[in-house]
């Protein structure tokens, strides 16, 4: 069984540095913002409390 991806809200600075290419793909064209931490992502499954951007 595949390992579940870590939500972007939980990524630390080290995670971003290690997976910068993946991170930049996720945030390149944001469609959602997390109400909890303010991070943005292209898909709502990356965030804990996603809200669609207009």
- The total number of structural domains is 1
What's the oligomerization state?
Answer: single chain
The SS-based structural class is: alpha+beta
**Helical content (DSSP H or I, runs of 4+):** 25-40%
Strand neighbour order, sheet with most strands: 2-1-3
Number of strand elements: 3
> Segments where pLDDT lies below 50 for 5+ residues?
none
Could you spell the SSE succession in H and E letters? HHEEE
Can you give the mean pLDDT? 92
Overall outline: globular
Radius of gyration: 11 Å
Count of individual helical segments:
2
Strand content: 5-15%
Report the major sheet.
3 strands, antiparallel
Distance between the termini: 36 Å
Protein described:
With 54 residues, this protein is α+β, with helices and mostly antiparallel strands. It has one domain. Helices cover 26% and strands 15% of the residues. Strands 2-1-3 form a three-stranded antiparallel sheet, with no helix packed on it. A hairpin with a 5-residue loop joins strand 1 and strand 2. The longest helix is centred in the middle third of the chain and has 8 residues. The chain starts with 12 loop residues before the first helix and ends with a strand. The mean pLDDT is 92.
Considering the chains and any ligands shown, give keywords for the structure.
54 residues; alpha+beta; 2 helices; globular
Q: Summed up, what is this model?
A:
It is built from two helices and three strands; from the N terminus they run ααβββ. It is of the alpha+beta class and 54 residues long.
Topology:
Elements lengths: L12 H6 L1 H8 L4 E3 L5 E2 L8 E3 L2
Antiparallel strand pairs: 1-2, 1-3
């Amino acid at each position: 069984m595949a390992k579940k991806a870590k939500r972007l809200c939980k990524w630390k600075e080290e995670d971003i540095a290690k997976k910068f290419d993946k991170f930049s793909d996720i945030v390149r064209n944001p469609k959602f913002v997390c109400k909890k931490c303010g991070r943005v992502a292209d898909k709502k499954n990356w965030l804990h409390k996603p809200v669609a951007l207009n």
